[in-house]
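[Discussion] Sanity-checking designs against the backbone

I'm trying to build intuition for which residues belong where. Below is a structure token string of 247 positions. I'd appreciate it if someone posts a full sequence so I can compare it with mine line by line.
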């Protein structure tokens, strides 16, 4: 079961995620119009819509671990894409796809060794992987605020994190072991100014933390974190491009 998300608020406050996604979409220039594409961690389907425009004669599949996100994505996309709820670590397609795309999602997956193996298995030989997620150093200042609030209001969460913010070197090593080639991994700082900082922090950052707290302690915890952060939020994106070996 994925982390419960306030999908409607996420959808309204996800301007930063849309901006980051534009970087990854730009790397899909030249994709075949009839390609089969898998969007891993599709969220509410906003970026999936942009993928559909790139493959007007192709097929788009989209998965997310959150039932709330999937419900909103299905409402948005209708019959234009096949959307389902599944943990990426359990991915097992009936037939491989030409392209795997992912943005702002993979740092929420708990086992990156298994993750890249699963994604490699879902790609045809010669298929392309284009992804972006939180990388080494991501939201370091925000995490320091969370730690400070945990010490005061939620000591049971000290030392716990729902994220893996991997380095380019570690990611390249995992990709090679999983069967990828032509690998390019890099970090890019993306200072971020959400229009609604309160909504963004609560839904895009704290969802998993709040899930672990009793209902009566969630609001004081979230309010204290929001009060402690200051834009720009110090986002660092891990960009990943690779090709499935054997093509």
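Best answer:
Here's mine. Compare freely.
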């Amino acid at each position: 079961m994925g982390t419960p998300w306030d999908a409607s608020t996420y959808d309204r406050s996800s301007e930063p995620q849309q901006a980051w996604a534009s970087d990854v979409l730009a790397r899909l220039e030249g994709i075949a119009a009839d390609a089969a594409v898998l969007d891993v961690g599709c969220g509410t389907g906003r970026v999936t819509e942009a993928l559909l425009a790139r493959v007007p004669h192709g097929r788009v599949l989209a998965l997310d671990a959150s039932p709330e996100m999937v419900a909103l994505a299905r409402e948005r996309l209708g019959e234009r894409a096949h959307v389902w709820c599944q943990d990426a670590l359990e991915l097992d397609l009936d037939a491989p796809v030409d392209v795997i795309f992912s943005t702002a999602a993979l740092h929420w997956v708990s086992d990156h060794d298994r993750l890249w193996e699963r994604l490699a298995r879902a790609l045809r030989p010669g298929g392309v992987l284009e992804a972006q997620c939180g990388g080494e150093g991501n939201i370091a200042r925000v995490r320091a605020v969370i730690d400070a609030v945990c010490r005061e209001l939620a000591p049971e969460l000290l030392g716990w994190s729902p994220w893996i913010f991997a380095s380019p070197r570690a990611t390249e090593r995992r990709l090679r072991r999983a069967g990828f080639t032509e690998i390019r991994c890099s970090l890019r700082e993306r200072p971020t100014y959400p229009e609604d900082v309160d909504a963004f922090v609560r839904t895009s950052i704290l969802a998993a933390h709040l899930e672990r707290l009793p209902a009566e302690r969630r609001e004081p915890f979230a309010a204290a974190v929001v009060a402690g952060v200051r834009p720009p939020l110090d986002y660092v994106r891990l960009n990943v491009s690779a090709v499935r070996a054997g093509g």
